[in-house]
């Protein structure tokens, strides 16, 4: 097991703390449940970079990218296999970081982030 720092927005942290205490599970277990519940299409849409389609001529503009927000750090105890899986999901969904992906998934799962 390794500690992985995840930065959660305050609203998501409160909801995660409440859920983990109510269900008597760890943040890592809550993250596993969140990934099982949130569908891939929702995550893809959350991290999709929206290019400026108004500019049909000339060089296309760089797409704006969803980034993480300032948050409060929590340590998630993950296995090496879980970390490797999480890193693969970061690449698959074009997320800026592990932390941004985990915060988004937890927020979507807990209802603190809009789909």
In brief:
Helix content is 51%, strand content 12%.
What does this structure look like?
- With 115 residues, the protein is an alpha+beta fold.
- The protein has one domain.
- The chain is built from five helices and two strands.
- Strands 1-2 form a two-stranded antiparallel ribbon.
- The longest helix has 14 residues.
Count of DSSP-assigned helices:
5
How many angstroms does the end-to-end distance come to? 31 Å
Which band does the percent of strand residues land in?
Answer: 5-15%
Q: What is the string of SSEs from the N terminus onward?
A: EHHHEHH
Biggest sheet, open or closed, and with what strands and sense?
2 strands, antiparallel
Q: Give the overall shape.
A: globular
Q: What's the mean pLDDT score?
A: 88
Instruction: Please compute the radius of gyration using only Cα atoms.
Output: 15 Å
What are the segments in which pLDDT stays under 50 over at least 5 consecutive residues?
A: none
Query: How many DSSP-defined strands?
Result: 2
Q: Strand order within the widest sheet?
A: 1-2
* Domain module count: 1
- Please estimate the helix content: 40-55%
């Amino acid at each position: 097991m390794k500690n992985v720092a995840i930065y959660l927005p305050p609203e998501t942290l409160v909801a995660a703390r409440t859920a983990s205490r109510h269900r008597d599970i760890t943040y890592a277990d809550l993250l596993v449940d969140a990934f099982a519940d949130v569908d891939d299409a929702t995550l893809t849409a959350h991290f999709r970079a929206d290019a400026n389609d108004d500019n049909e001529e000339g060089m296309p503009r760089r797409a704006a990218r969803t980034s993480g927000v300032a948050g409060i750090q929590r340590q998630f105890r993950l296995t090496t296999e879980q970390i490797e899986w999480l890193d693969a999901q970061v690449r698959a969904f074009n997320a800026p970081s592990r932390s941004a992906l985990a915060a988004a998934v937890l927020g979507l799962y807990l209802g603190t982030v809009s789909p």
